[in-house]
């Protein structure tokens, strides 16, 4: 019900004509789209989230890059170790081949020693057989006691020496052949054992190196796969970030266009207000000297116009709480906001005091008392020069302004602002206005 009544009031206000010529203007084109602060913040939050994710993935990628470098270095070291093991294996295999060659040579020597032993044994056997067949007593005295003459004794002595030397030579050759064979066998066994040991060690080292290389390559492949996965994730987030940034740029461009339109509208309104202020001041000047003293009470449309003109002539004067009286702007009272005490201006009720004082109407100082100073009229019957009042819920009246026609009002709004003309606000608007003329 209340909402319907408010709509009716707005329609009536829009249809109201005014006797004032203040700030009449043709309808302006609609404003460009204006993204809400929530949309802009959501867009910025989306960018921040994606930028954060991108930062984390970039850091992870850098860490993986570092790990990949370490793995590649480890892989290179393992490959170097494998190459060294291969070289050691080649050396060991060459040593084994050399040992085999030496073993083959030792076998040849062993075979030669065996032949020598057999030869020495054969000669010793031949010597023994020959001695036995000839019936010789090869003992120490056997040959000598059988001598038949001094010459035969000498010959037998020489023979005994020859036999002894032959026997010793045969025995010595046999012994050397046996020693040579034993040495050759020992060298062959040692060479083969050493070659097999070194080849086995080299093969084990090569196998270990190959296994280490395989493990390092597996780790490097896994790291490369992880690196590729994170890189793909980072690229996807980068695309999302770029899209969010583009969307954000579009929203902010819309906001920039809207704010530009607002600035243009504000400049236009300021120019119109300055023109209206100058026109109002000129009308006041042409209508007679304004000595800022309360004249006799006037009535009629001329009085209404004068009230409006007096208010309009103060457009741009700063708001000062407690400022203003029937003669014009004054210093105010401390507002608790740190404003200097030497500021001069109007508050909302002070502006009304000055406006109506020009036609001899004396108003009370406070807005809620001004509400009860004149005749009450419904908002639906609002006319230029009527005072309109505002309050929040059940709180007392806290603000007064003057309706000037064309759906607009003039007011001294709040600390930090100036006297201005704005569209008639409906939020908090009381359903009754006060008419003084």
UniProtKB/TrEMBL annotation:
Protein keywords: Coiled coil, Hydrolase, Protease, Signal, Thiol protease
UniProt GO molecular function: cysteine-type peptidase activity
Coiled coil: 54-109, 174-233
InterPro entries with a match to the protein in the record: NLP_P60_dom (IPR000064), Papain-like_cys_pep_sf (IPR038765), PG_Endopeptidase_C40 (IPR051794)
Segments of this protein annotated with the region Disordered: 21-42, 260-298
Domain NlpC/P60: 301-437
Keyword Hydrolase: yes
Secretion signal span: 1-24
Entries under Pfam families matching the protein: NLPC_P60
GO biological process: proteolysis
Domain of life assignment: Bacteria
Record flagged with keyword Coiled coil: yes
Bias (Pro residues): 26-35
Family: Belongs to the peptidase C40 family.
Name of the molecule in the record: C40 family peptidase
């Amino acid at each position: 019900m209340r909402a319907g009544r408010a709509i009716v009031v707005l329609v009536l206000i829009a249809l109201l004509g005014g006797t004032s010529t203040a700030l009449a203007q043709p309808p302006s084109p609609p404003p460009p789209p204006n993204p809400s602060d929530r949309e802009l913040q959501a867009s910025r939050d989306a960018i921040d989230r994606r930028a954060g994710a991108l930062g984390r993935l970039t850091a992870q990628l850098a860490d993986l890059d570092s790990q990949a470098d370490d793995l590649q270095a480890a892989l290179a070291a393992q490959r170097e170790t494998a190459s060294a093991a291969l070289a050691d294996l080649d050396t060991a295999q060459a040593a084994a081949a050399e040992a085999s060659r030496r073993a083959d040579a030792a076998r040849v020597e062993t075979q030669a020693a065996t032949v020598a032993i057999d030869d020495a044994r054969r000669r010793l056997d031949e010597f023994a057989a020959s001695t036995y067949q000839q019936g010789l007593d090869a003992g120490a005295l056997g040959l000598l006691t059988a001598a038949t003459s001094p010459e035969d004794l000498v010959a037998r002595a020489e023979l005994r020496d020859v036999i002894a030397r032959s026997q010793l030579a045969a025995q010595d050759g046999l012994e050397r052949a046996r020693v040579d064979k034993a040495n050759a066998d020992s060298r062959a066994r040692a060479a083969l054992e050493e070659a097999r040991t070194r080849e086995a060690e080299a093969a084990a080292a090569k196998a270990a190196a190959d296994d280490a290389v395989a493990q390092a390559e597996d780790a490097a492949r896994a790291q490369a796969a992880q690196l590729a996965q994170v890189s793909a994730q980072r690229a996807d987030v980068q695309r999302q970030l770029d899209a969010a940034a583009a969307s954000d740029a579009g929203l902010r461009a819309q906001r920039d266009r809207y704010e530009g339109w607002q600035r243009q509208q504000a400049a236009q309104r300021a120019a119109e207000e300055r023109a209206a202020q100058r026109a109002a001041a000129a009308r006041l000047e042409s209508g007679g000297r304004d000595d800022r003293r309360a004249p006799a009470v006037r009535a009629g449309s001329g009085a209404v116009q004068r009230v409006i003109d007096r208010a309009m002539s103060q457009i741009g004067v700063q708001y000062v709480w407690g400022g203003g009286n029937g003669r014009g702007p004054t210093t105010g009272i401390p507002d608790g906001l740190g404003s200097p005490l030497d500021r001069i201006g109007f508050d909302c009720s002070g502006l009304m005091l000055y406006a109506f004082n020009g036609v001899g109407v004396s108003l009370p100082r406070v807005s809620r008392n001004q509400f009860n100073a004149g005749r009450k009229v419904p908002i639906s019957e609002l006319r230029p020069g009527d005072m309109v009042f505002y309050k929040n819920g059940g709180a007392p009246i806290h603000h007064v302004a003057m309706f000037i026609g064309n759906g607009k009002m003039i007011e001294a709004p709040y600390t930090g602002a100036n006297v201005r003309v704005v569209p008639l606000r409906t939020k908090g608007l009381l359903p009754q206005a006060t008419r003084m003329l």
